[in-house]
């Protein structure tokens, strides 16, 4: 766990060794340090390769309604953990659905890996009549895994989310946190290179959410999945992301992003998470005030 002092507030200006404030397109990118220094951003075999997800000049309108997303561009590297953060209604779910291929952009293009993506929502959407294990097995079956292998694979996936003991329970016998673990195991069972998560822990209590953050981080490190995690919770984004991308509202667009060099050992109560949250909240408030003006 990092013991960096809160005073090392992680602003770009305090971190010349982490790079001066950079710009990507016309958006400021903050490279955080020194509270986040020591470890480079996940050493990418990936960095040199093509992005896993490329969002290029994407706009979205529903019918004749207002512009929901306006010229959004974002490259996400393979294996990267990106948090998309923004106020309710700013277009986060719309963007995630576009990445998932559930809807088409009005303008612009989105490239995703051939293997596609698995999506996880706030509601676990498990089959209520199937046990945890059978729910995971169903995803394996849809993926074409032979019957003889499904049982064992499902158990090992449940084990990966610390739920092997509850494999034979049905959803109504599980807590909200346990159901989301099953949903995560099921998403992993689909074996897609990209995992899209839309406020998956928003309905959980703080302690359970905290545990799920640890689980998810462990799974991310173990599997090398590219994760796009949508949240309106600043702390959650600062706790989880390698990169936090802040969206503004009406129309939804990217206003700023932060890259966190040292992501190991973070906890929701870590000083660097608190410092980053303060900085992001400042920007978010400015954005909200600007919208209200
Ligand atoms: N299918 C749809 N038809 C019309 N409007 C939509 C549809 N989906 C989302 N919207 C509108 O797009 C805006 C952004 O919604 P959404 O992406 O759900 O925001 P967020 O996930 O950030 O809370 C909202 O104003 C919402 O009403
Ligand atoms: Mg949403």
How is this structure best described in words?
This protein is of the alpha/beta class and 293 residues long. It has two domains: 12-116 and 192-276, 3-Layer(aba) Sandwich (Rossmann fold), CATH 3.40.50; 127-191, no CATH class. The protein has helices at 92-100, 132-142, 147-160, 176-189, 206-223, 234-240, 271-292; strands at residues 22-24, 27-31, 53-61, 67-76, 81-85, 107-111, 117-120, 194-198, 226-231, 243-248, 253-259. It has an eight-stranded mixed β-sheet, sandwiched between helices. Strands 4-3-6 form a three-stranded antiparallel β-sheet, with helices on one face. Helix 3 (147-160) crosses helix 4 (176-189). It binds adenosine-5'-diphosphate (ADP) and magnesium ion. Magnesium ion binds next to helix 1. It comes from Microbacterium kyungheense.
Which features would summarize this protein structure in a list?
293 residues; alpha/beta; Rossmann fold; 2 domains; 8-stranded mixed β-sheet; 3-stranded antiparallel β-sheet; binds adenosine-5'-diphosphate; binds magnesium ion
Q: Share of helix among residues?
A: 25-40%
Beta-strand fraction estimate: 15-25%
Structure summary, number of beta strands: 11
Q: What does the overall shape look like?
A: globular
Low-confidence runs of at least 5 consecutive residues: 1-21, 33-47
Write down the Rg.
Answer: 19 Å
Largest sheet data = 8 strands, mixed
* Ligand set: adenosine-5'-diphosphate, magnesium ion
Please name the CATH topology of the largest domain. Answer: Rossmann fold
Q: What average pLDDT do the residues reach?
A: 86
CATH architecture of the largest domain: 3-Layer(aba) Sandwich
Fourth CATH level, the homologous superfamily of the largest domain: P-loop containing nucleotide triphosphate hydrolases
Task: Identify the quaternary structure here.
Answer: single chain
| End-to-end distance | 42 Å
The CATH class of the largest domain? Alpha Beta
Structural category is: alpha/beta
Number of helices: 7
Keywords: ATP-binding, Nucleotide-binding, Transport
InterPro entries: AAA+_ATPase, ABC_transporter-like_ATP-bd, ABC_transporter-like_CS, ABC_transporter_ATP-bind, P-loop_NTPase
Protein name: NitT/TauT family transport system ATP-binding protein
Organism: Microbacterium kyungheense
